[in-house]
Amino acid sequence: MAIEVRIPTILRNLTGGAKAVEGKGSTLDELFTDLDGAHPGLRARLVDEKGLRRFVNVYLNDEDVRFLGGLGTEVSDGDTVTVLPAVAGG
Amino acid sequence: MRYDSLIDALGHTPLVGLPRLSPSADVRLWAKLEDRNPTGSIKDRPALWMVQQAEKDGLLTPGCTILEPTSGNTGIALAMAAKLKGYKIICVMPENTSEERRQLLRMWGAEIISSSAAGGSNEAVRVAKGLAVEHPDWVMLYQYGNEANARAHYESTGPELLADLPTITHFVAGLGTTGTLMGVGRYLREQVPDVRIVAAEPRYGELVYGLRNVDEGFVPELYDPTVLTTRFSVGSHDALRRTRELLETEGIFAGISTGAVVHAALGMAAKAVKAGERADIAFVVADGGWKYLSTGAYEGTLEEAEARIDGQLWA
């Protein structure tokens, strides 16, 4: 088992077009580092020196990780992580 | 009840118990029926507050033209207010919004400028900001950054909820401009210790996220994450499923975004049951289902409905 990470259209150039990729790690930070091995450049599009990029939203099993533990959020096998760009509503 | 005019009839919407959907006598769900507003949505509140504030500030004077990026409800609410008060109104709306919304806007006298489907409301905001620069005489109320939007809920929706449900423990609403959650959230946090403020954000089909890069995303200027306890992303499958469940169990015919809110509310309810805690969870029914009938959301199997609304802005 691994952690499934759903990738938005605009970042699929880094995953060979794949809508979802799998990775390992005990935290989101470790997971993104692991993913960067197979998909170089992916981590830098999600994270900068201050943490998650402003217009990137990441959800662990549909809950916004900014309200869980940010990059330190613990993840485990079977979890689903969804990456989405921030969009307007209303 | 008697009011001097339609605008005066705004707010004071019913809060109804949901005995069949609530998991137990200790963990109860309550629906605030915002479809019972003059134009049928919660957006009548921010629309009126924004117009009144702009009049007070001297920005809006008779004969003025209002400009607003909107996926529908705010535009419809503003168009009604504009008609009664003698303003012209132009709405910038993504082309992937339901036909009913367009008809309603035209009916109340709004002019519609369509923005491209790809990029959803982000694109509508971008186009409207461009038009505002080209036409400095137009008044953009700009719901995403107008403090009167959140204040409408701080001054009306929040106090109404607390008066009707003094034992409230959770408030759940949809996240769009963030105005409802910011306004009600701030009010309740001041009045109710440990109240939980929960956002349900619609997760659309891929087309809507068709930005050119991740630096072109959009976070409303009104958004302050410290007001929220947590935030859920709810996909169209769960939103449709819960919209139908609300209709089947409690008879409430709500718009699709309400389904997303119900999904998050039921998630919080399940957590309270598991923790053995008492809970009174109030959520917002932002509008009725009427404007979404043509999307096919209420007919056939869930899978068919899901396929039909893929690529639509359903909230």
- The CATH architecture of the largest domain in chain B would be 3-Layer(aba) Sandwich
- The Cα radius of gyration of chain A reads 12 Å
Overall structural class of chain A, as computed from helix and strand content, comes to alpha+beta
Pick out the low-confidence regions of chain B. none
Number of domains of chain A: 1
CATH top level class name of the largest domain in chain B: Alpha Beta
Q: Pair with the most extensive interface?
A: A-B, 26 and 48 residues
Overall geometric form of chain A: globular
Q: What's the CATH class of chain A, please?
A: Alpha Beta
Q: What spatial order of strands do you see in the largest sheet of chain A? A: 2-1-7-5-6
| CATH fold-level label of the largest domain in chain B | Rossmann fold
Order of helices and strands of chain A: EEHHEEEEE
Q: In whole angstroms, how far apart are the ends of chain B?
A: 31 Å
List keywords for this structure.
heterodimer; A: globular; B: 315 residues; alpha/beta; Rossmann fold; 2 domains; 6-stranded mixed sheet; 4-stranded parallel sheet; globular
Report on this model:
The complex is a heterodimer of chains A (90) and B (315). With 90 residues, chain A is α+β, with helices and mostly antiparallel strands. Chain A has a single domain (3-85), classed as Ubiquitin-like (UB roll) (Roll), CATH 3.10.20. Chain A is 18% helix and 28% strand. Chain A is built from 2 helices and 7 strands. A 5-stranded mixed β-sheet of chain A has the order 2-1-7-5-6, with helices on one face. Chain A has a two-stranded antiparallel ribbon with strand order 3-4. The mean pLDDT of chain A is 94. Chain B has 315 residues and is of the alpha/beta class. Chain B contains 9 helices and 10 strands.
